[in-house]
Design a protein that fits this description.
Order of helices and strands: HHHHHHH
Structural class: mainly alpha
Number of strands: 0
Largest sheet: none
Number of helices: 7
């Protein structure tokens, strides 16, 4: 399988940086939303708490989960077929399921329980991104058969809005 003989290392590096940058932005936003909820719970401000939880939940449902699901085909498909990648991908898919479960739990939790659940989502997502950045994506970028650049091309859920192509401005 040498159909990627013309793989461009610079393009692979750019794709890696784009996804890592998007990951950092997402994690920063998640940390901010969780911190706001924790503060409201600590201060027993039920109005602020309700608002913070709604915001965190909406972000998880509209940003976090779609990002995770968007990865499963393009980013996980190749490594899942490779012997060295399979176990890693299986573990990461299990983490996606855990994240989805935790977001469901967040939607029915209140107070301290909601803050705790938010914190768990944050830590699990951080660990998940760490595996993706340091194990999965380098594996794809270094592999002879796979290309990270072509895997993430045009997928704004994976690389953020700024890195998708100019001709690709479909509004969802």
């Amino acid at each position: 399988m040498h159909h990627d003989a013309h793989k461009d290392p610079a393009a692979e590096r750019r794709a890696l940086q784009a996804v890592e940058h998007h990951h950092a932005e997402m994690l920063g936003k998640l940390r901010e939303l969780v911190a706001t909820l924790v503060r409201a719970v600590e201060e027993r401000d039920s109005n602020a708490e309700h608002h913070a939880q709604e915001e965190l939940l909406a972000w998880c449902q509209h940003e976090l989960i779609p990002h995770a699901l968007a990865e499963e085909g393009p980013l996980y498909g190749g490594p899942r077929k490779a012997l060295e990648g399979r176990l890693l991908v299986e573990g990461m898919l299990a983490e996606h399921k855990a994240i989805v479960r935790l977001v469901e739990q967040l939607s029915v939790s209140r107070g301290v329980k909601a803050a705790v659940t938010g914190g768990v989502i944050e830590e699990l997502f951080a660990l998940h991104l760490d595996k993706e950045n340091n194990l999965l994506m380098p594996f794809i970028a270094d592999s002879a058969e796979l290309s990270l650049a072509s895997a993430v091309e045009g997928l704004h859920e994976l690389v953020g809005e700024t890195h998708t192509h100019a001709h690709d401005h479909k509004q969802s």
